[in-house]
Write a structure and sequence with these properties.
The protein has about 450 residues and is an alpha/beta fold. It is built from 13 helices and 21 strands. It has four domains: about 120 residues, Rossmann fold; about 120 residues, Transcription Regulator spoIIAA (2-Layer Sandwich), CATH 3.30.750.210; about 110 residues, 2-Layer Sandwich (Transcription Regulator spoIIAA); about 55 residues. The radius of gyration is 22 Å and the shape is globular.
């Protein structure tokens, strides 16, 4: 029995797809092992959102060959689609499979044995027009369920349309069936993932269903305590969706809304499909219906042409906005994107300074949000990550909680009272009467 190991770079969508590919191997009799267990085969699923992701791919290949010098190394994912020839030149790589080929690995590779010349299977991105159902597997706490792939937007900084193709989706019926299977496997929370999940519903090039109808259908699936929407574009987050989540039985009060810039000038240059006025309105709508809702924000600093005043406009906009945390990205030039040809690049040291400022703001935002939750009773889904006698979990509105380890709590939803924020910035709960029976637990 040959041993195979997997390594995933990038987003939740990549993790769901890696898990699906791993099940293909296991169904054919391969033994899935850890990266360090001297596997015969390594499958590396790559990201190419930033230049750092490219460098990580090279490093992982080197480490794989150190662990198993005679192993077979295959590269899949976004980087593999964008730069297949370049990747095939990395020492130690045996095969490269693009977006249309990664789920059909066994059709292209009849044996996983290193050969003299690397094999490259990566067609034009227009060939990636089928939706491949995927969800993560093996974690009873939460599962990443892929509902949509590709993107029809043309943001100036983004390579994803080049790496994943046009927007396409699974059907509501098939996703409901998958959710039922996930519930039967014991997972308590499903995170909906995709490239642009608000654009859900395109099948065979035509819009046939809508995201609001998907979440209505998933809300009826028994056995799942929570659904979490991973990220949704502000122009696609309608008032109808916000109102539904607010009264939903299972969709939690947590949204992640990409902003990218608080300057309308920069948003226009980025070719985003909204301005700051719409973003501010969406945040206000969420908070009006769900005052305790957690709101995360993606923001890019150092985009070409971003002046100091543009950056400060972004800083002020975020500082005044009722959001809970930031994911800060330092802009990096990506080949074949519109932004890579733009004038007035921001010096790297200036990009780094601006990133540091926004990360500091993010910590202030997170702590301020946690302060609003002190003394409140929340439902926590506890995880299996035990460290120094402590365990962790997340409330429905994404407050990270720390409590003393109790094996009976692992993978369980329990009701707790949030008592204080510790030195590490985690929420602690009252002892010893912290645990109450959760109304959904029989």
């Amino acid at each position: 029995m040959k041993k195979v190991a997997f390594y995933t770079l990038g987003c939740k969508l990549n993790f769901s797809e890696t898990s699906t590919i791993s099940r293909q191997f296991e169904d054919r009799g391969y033994q899935k092992v850890e990266f360090s267990d001297q596997p015969d085969i390594f499958i590396i699923n790559t990201c190419s959102v930033t230049d750092n992701a490219d460098k990580k791919c090279r490093k992982i290949v080197r480490e794989a060959k150190k662990i198993s010098p005679s192993s077979f190394v295959a590269i899949v994912g976004c980087y593999a689609q964008l730069k297949p020839v370049e990747i095939s030149g990395i020492e130690g790589v045996d095969a490269v499979l693009g977006a249309a080929e990664k789920f059909r690995m066994f059709d292209y590779l009849d044996e996983f044995v290193p050969k003299e010349n690397p094999q490259v299977f990566a067609t034009e991105i227009r060939e990636a027009n089928s939706f491949h159902a995927s969800h993560s597997h093996g974690d009873r706490t939460r599962t990443f369920l892929k509902v949509q792939d590709g993107c029809n937007y043309g943001c100036a900084f983004c390579t994803i349309p080049l790496a994943r193709g046009k927007s396409r989706s699974d059907t509501i019926r098939q996703l409901v069936d998958q959710a039922g299977e996930i519930a039967a496997a014991g997972s308590r929370e499903i995170v909906l993932t995709g490239v642009n999940i608000g654009d859900f519903g395109i099948q065979d090039g035509k819009r046939k269903e809508k995201f609001i109808d998907l979440i209505r259908a998933l809300d009826q699936v028994e056995g799942i305590d929570r659904y979490r929407i991973s990220s949704i574009e502000p122009n696609l987050l309608t008032e109808e969706i916000i109102q539904y989540v607010a009264r939903s039985k299972r969709f939690v009060p947590h949204f992640h809304l990409p902003l990218q810039s608080g300057s309308d000038k920069i948003l226009t240059a980025m070719n985003r499909r909204y301005l700051t006025s719409l973003y501010r309105e969406r945040v206000a709508q969420i908070k009006a219906t769900m005052p305790d809702c957690c709101i995360g924000v993606d923001v890019i600093v150092g985009f070409p042409g971003e002046t100091e005043e543009d950056f400060l406009e972004t800083y002020r906009f975020l500082n005044e906005l009722d959001v809970s945390y930031l994911h800060v990205f330092t802009y990096s030039e990506r080949p074949n994107t519109a932004a890579s040809h733009m004038e007035s690049p921001v010096p790297q040291n200036e990009r780094n300074r601006r990133s540091k400022m926004l990360r500091g703001l993010s910590e202030k935002k997170r702590r301020a949000f946690y302060q609003t939750q002190l003394g409140k009773t929340r439902n926590v889904l506890f995880e299996a990550d035990i460290e120094n006698g402590m365990m962790h979990g997340f409330t429905e509105n994404y407050v990270r909680v720390q409590a003393k380890y109790d094996p009976i709590l692992v993978h369980e939803v329990k009701t707790v009272k949030l008592s204080e924020i510790n030195a590490a910035g985690l929420m602690e709960v009252e002892e010893p009467e912290m645990i109450f029976a959760h109304p959904l637990i029989k």
